[in-house]
Specification:
207 residues; mainly beta; 7-stranded antiparallel β-sheet
């Protein structure tokens, strides 16, 4: 979608459908003759991928506002509006099958955010977010959610194995999930406790 600024407020200009070969078809069609501004102030957004499950948000991309002169092309740079976490479980006490069968939860995270007129509006409702396995038998799991901070001492993730919960708490500093960044969270489960470490990574793995 792209949005046009009119009297200080953005409204939907057109919705685009990708038909392949870098071809986007607008509905309704857009003509410069119908836009009474020079330059025009525009924004854009796209849902790059659907939500991995009903507890998560879709992968929303948004652009900054751009100024476009009449009868020229509009080039948007789209950025991820959300945060992404890839959870990797490590343990000397549990088998690989037990780790692969574990449930991974981001507890009491703020959720319910949505895109409106090219801007991401954060939600304010706390809820549990369930990480989604990336492959059968793989202990890695992924969650996409709105940017937020987990305070020191609060659980970043809870891992449930064989009916028992193992909380990995934030510390010695708060855990900040920043817009547009992806994190590898390595959760180590042991008899003496559960720890989590974070590493910023590419949103999409490149080979």
């Amino acid at each position: 979608r792209d949005y046009l600024k009119n009297s200080g407020t953005y409204g939907l200009l057109s919705t685009y459908t990708y038909t392949g070969n870098n071809d986007w078809v607008p509905n309704p069609p857009v003509y410069w003759e119908s836009i009474p501004f020079d330059p025009a102030q525009l924004r854009a957004s796209i849902e790059a991928a659907p939500a991995l499950n009903f507890t998560q948000l879709p992968d929303i991309l948004i652009s900054d506002e751009i100024s476009v002169s009449q009868n020229t092309g509009a080039n948007f740079t789209l950025n991820h509006a959300l945060s992404k976490a890839i959870v990797r479980l490590r343990s000397d006490n549990f088998t690989s099958d037990e780790l692969a069968g574990a449930t991974i939860t981001f507890p009491n995270y703020l959720t319910g955010g949505y895109e409106e007129n090219g801007v991401f509006i954060p939600g304010t409702q706390p809820a549990n977010i369930t990480a989604q396995r990336t492959a059968t038998g793989n202990s890695d799991a992924v969650a996409i959610f709105q940017p937020q901070q987990v305070a020191i001492g609060n659980p970043v993730v809870i891992v449930t194995i064989n009916g028992r919960d193992y909380a990995a708490n934030a510390g010695p500093a708060a855990m900040n999930f920043v817009q547009g960044e992806a994190y590898i969270l390595t959760v180590t489960l042991s008899k003496v406790g559960t720890t989590v470490s974070a590493q910023v990574t590419d949103w999409i793995t490149r080979t």
